[in-house]
Predict the structure.
Amino acid sequence: MNNPGDEGARHDGPPLVSCENLTFSYPGSEGTALAGVSFELGTGEYVGVVGPNGGGKSTLLRLLNGLIRADSGGVRVGGLDPATEPYQVRKRVGMLFQNPDNGLVAPFVEDDVAFGLENSGVSREEMRERVGTAIRAVGLEGFERREPHTLSGGEKQRVALAGLLALDPEVLLLDEPTSMLDAAGRAEVLSKLGELRGARTVLHVTHHLDELLGANRALVLNAGRLVADVPPERLVSDAELLRENRLALPATLRLAAGLGLGAAKPRTPEELAAAVLRRVKLGVEAR
Amino acid sequence: MRIELEDVRHIYAPGTPFEVEALRGVSLAVEPDEALGIVGGTGSGKSTLAQHLNLLLAPTSGRVLVDGADARTLKGVELRRRVGLVFQFPEAALFAPTVEEDVAFAPRRLGLDEEETRERVSETLELLGASHLVGRAPHALSGGEKRRVAIAGVLAMAPEVLVLDEPTAGLDPATREDLLGVVRALRDGGTSVVMVSHDLDEVAEVVDRVCVLEKGELLAVGAPETVFYAHLVTAPSTVRTASILRGPYPEVGRPVRFKDTLAALKGLLEGRG
Amino acid sequence: MTASRSLGQFYPVASLLHGLDARAKILATAVLAVGLFLVDSVAGFLLGAAMVVLLVAASRVPPGIFLGFLRPVAFIVALTLLFQILFSPEGETLFAWGFLEVHEGGLMRGLFLALRILLLVSTAGLLTATTAPVALADGIEDLLSPLKKLRFPAHELAMMTTIALRFIPTLHEETQKIARAQAARGADFSEGGPIRRARALLPVLIPLTVGAFRRADELAEAMESRGYRGGEGRMRYRESRFRARDALALAAAVLVVAGGILV
């Protein structure tokens, strides 16, 4: 996903999302899911969240839209506290889930995209328009009367995305939206997310580090603690950071790192080949 | 054990408006002691093909041969023991109150006595790095742990061939690595492994041969360096990068594995760069 | 992989019946169902059968689909028919074979019963095949909404119906997948007597149920995240207008039933 403008720089104005000393444990479980996590998101920032499973990533997202309530510490989203005003917060925050099937509630695509709008108090005429626009925006025109079980994983996630966008949230919370999809589905969904993101603030939990190359920064959560808050360049090149947090680079980035070409941040194998060619030519010219 | 598909066609829901020809005359052999990769996009017929290897699905036309004999002449239960199949997201089928009970399901069905079953269970769990989970309840485990238990449940049959349909789907990187290690260990230990996967980078690291399916047809089968370099659309990242570079710099050769590709490209940069 | 066609699933085509309001159709189906139980004469049944045939034609759903609806009940119907024919000693004996006697009364009784079941299933199938699932759920909610004053959870019932309709095909596929996965581990669903077979189903039913609960949790999270807070103040996407033709259809249903009973 592309972020036009400065990467790694802080954005002006008060933070849209802020967490202070967040702590949470799931009832009945032994460890703490989140322990004293603090960070801020500026308006329009695109921030990744990475780390080993069980490290608190999903928990963090759920605290931000009020699905769960922190044991201690403060959360503010757009000036509101998700714990006390969840419905207000959810008007401005949209969440995309990992399992493409379990986010679709209605028997037809059209009705599912309309679901959030039905809850939001918008008029029926406006609903129809917004549903139509959203379905077209994700490239699913013609799919209005399709039933969810006939769709591919990528199509299901796009339906879910359409449903979110129809509500026009300021903040997008993405909980590993591509991890259950195949390569084609991943490409579909990521492409639409990039295209349609606009000026929204995004928090993107993922295991695929190449998805965060265009991010402003990445938060590393391990065992409930925020252990790092770094720009993506650092994330993909710091071997110790990667190892300590059980993060894995995709093959292309690993090759790039091994060849000392990490700075090029190649997103595709072809970009890496181009970077290698450039380096070879430079070497030839140097001789 | 050698499994052969002879011009296998498979049509789902024949004669209805939902008719789909998933396999259009595929001929393929799974050799003993090999790791075979089956790759292809969605709708290519990979999963359908996998389910024919132990006749869980029967061909609409064509034959499946096991060691030269028509698979239909073998007892179904026996065939499914010798060719173990792990479905995609297999943890959805975990059902017993404890991990031990669940993994013991297949051995018990095979008629092993209690002691043999217990041994088989603990061996298998150890192979999957899941021994510490033996008394736990399956539904309380993490995704990666459940996956290991589910695979153990099939491996407990001590099959000669293990077919895995997208074994690392939805897993975090650490667990993926562990599972790929298990696949290698199995192949080294004499169990053939057939791995259906859309993750070409993973397949490249593990398999001895690979076959490419597209829309139900077999496009190619053979050694990874032969198949991948001839079909770049379904090739791993390493091959895609190297194939661009070997044009102007043929000394790059045709590496497939990460290690080999890194070495080849390093060599290129040091030699020429 | 396979597209599963659930019993009575919606068949999307434009027809007279498809255009009717869901509420009218639900009520008409109820009226017809009651009528089918009250009809008791050959003429009445002929009227009922003719009406169903007409409705199937008006629905523009291929008749083959309806035959598909009937297949699951065909066995029960045949059994019922046989039972009635062989074991109801009413009326004249039509013929006898050894100790088996077929009486006129039994034959009629059997045929009536069989027809009742078939026509009922067809009528219900007509409803679900011509009414989009959400429209159906909305219709149920609307019809039951006067009961909301008595704290009856009409909206919740409708929501449950929508979700159930949405997940039936998904769960169907899941069941097949789990069954095949267990078969791959040596499970055999066809051996043994009824008790053995029931126990053999546990490795399918348990994960299916556990999985369903997990789905429900995740779905609830998704619904809440999208602002769902029950039926209060929800504006429904689908419009339902009760028009003259809907009233006519309902009136027609009542008339047919009255006619069938009186004939």
Notes: The longest strand of chain B covers residues 20-30. The interface with chain C takes residues 12-13, 16, 18, 20, 22, 47-48, 51, 54, 56, 77, 80-81, 84-87, 90, 92-95, 105-106, 109-110, 139, 153-154, 157 of chain B (CB under 8 Å).
